[in-house]
Amino acid sequence: MKPRKRIILLGASGSIGKSALDVIRAERDSLELVAASVHQNETVAAALRDEFGLKALCVSGPSRPMDGATYRGAEGLIGMIRETEADIVLNAVPGAAGIDPSMAAAESGKDLALANKESMVCAGRLLKEALASSGARLFPVDSEHSALSILLERMGKENVEELILTASGGPFRDCPLEDIAEADLSAALAHPTWSMGRKITVDSATMANKGLEVMEAIELFGFSVDSIKVLIHPESKVHSLVRCRDGSLYAQISRPDMRLPIHNALFWPEIRKASSGALDLRGESLSFREPEAARYPVLSTAYEAARLAAAYPIAFNAANEEAVAMFLDGGIAFTGIAEIVEETLGGDFSREPRDMETVHAEDGRARASARAFGRKREKR
Ligand code: NDP
Ligand code: MG
């Protein structure tokens, strides 16, 4: 019998983390959870330690020492990734906090199943260099990129001219534009098709998420920004498409369930029976439309950041993270997110991020600037 694939799961108590645990439980003969991290959810941490008999466990957030946690804090997280024997690291930490863990996995020669899109957006080149020198591989977990990697492999990258990322359009895709300015937190968190963490759910409403995914696709697949398109597809069944030289489109179609891309990342290149079930197309209708610029100004700003490249993608991500945190905190209006991101990108981020110090420095500079713009718009 083949030895089980040993997995380190980062962000085990989150939305992706829970889906990953489902996949691991359904495939106990092939997959073994050897280590996990949470930020502060010690209840989940304790339950996982008992259920899986973990060799290592990290509580990465600022909580009091936990019984049985072998690693603590952000540095402990890096230590756990480097020191625990494993085949693959599934990184489902949200935001820029996920970048160093991805680098640690790559540098220590462990394959990387990457849900944390920010790693590719902010440090794509450095991460690819680290993977190349250690010989580790990267498998995207983001559903669109999982779909694209399978499609590109099957169709042959040289035959593909255009990548089309689909987007649900979020909760405000159909409401009158003037209502968006008044949108409150509960409206922004009411995602029509996907159940996800709060930050990425707000990013779906603004389409900052799709903007990050365009940048992620540029880094992952080496396509130019102008060959990557976005279409709103409210049903969230077609996860992405490629257009080949002959004009034909090929799509990956399945239920909106993150367990499938996680399963595919953990078993790549094998296509095997998945526990998340199959989609029955009978009775389904699939529709597509262009995202309106006035409804999703953050998407246009993301394309601009992708064109400018250098540290602009880092600044886009950092400014958006800060602005979304302010919105989630009740400090600014929903439309303030787009304004803060655009204002921040008015700064100079033309420095090439050639090392991790520069990545962090540019991230910090963009955050400070976004917070300053945010204070000017504070509601209270
Ligand atoms: P959640 O907010 O649901 O979960 C985040 C997880 O990471 C939790 O386990 C949390 O621990 C932990 N965590 C939070 N902050 C930190 C930190 N600063 N350092 C280390 N760990 C931390 O997020 P999601 O699962 O929705 O998203 C995770 C990543 O996956 C994001 O990058 C997102 O863009 C990406 N992604 C998510 C998708 C989805 O469907 N949700 C789809 C595609 C990509 P605790 O619970 O203890 O706070
Ligand atoms: Mg996605």
Structure, described:
This protein is α/β, with parallel strands linked by helices and about 375 residues long. About 45% of the residues lie in helices and about 15% in strands. The protein has a 7-stranded parallel β-sheet, sandwiched between helices. The protein has a 4-stranded mixed β-sheet with strand order 9-8-10-11, covered by helices on one side. α2 (about 40-50) links the parallel β2 and β3 (about 55-60). α12 runs antiparallel to α13 (about 310-330). The relative contact order is 0.11.
Name some characteristics of this structure:
380 residues; seven-stranded parallel β-sheet; four-stranded mixed β-sheet; globular; binds magnesium ion; single chain; alpha/beta
* Distinct small molecules bound, one entry per kind: NADPH dihydro-nicotinamide-adenine-dinucleotide phosphate, magnesium ion
Can you count the helices?
A: 15
Helix proportion: 40-55%
Order of helices and strands: EHEHEEHEHEHEHEHHHHEEEHHHHH
Low-confidence stretches: none
Strand order of the largest sheet: 4-3-2-1-5-6-7
What portion of residues belong to β-strands? 5-15%
Distance between the termini: 62 Å
Which sheet architecture does the biggest sheet show?
Answer: 7 strands, parallel
Cα-based radius of gyration, to the nearest Å: 20 Å
Short description:
The chain is an alpha/beta fold and 380 residues long. Helices cover 46% and strands 15% of the residues.
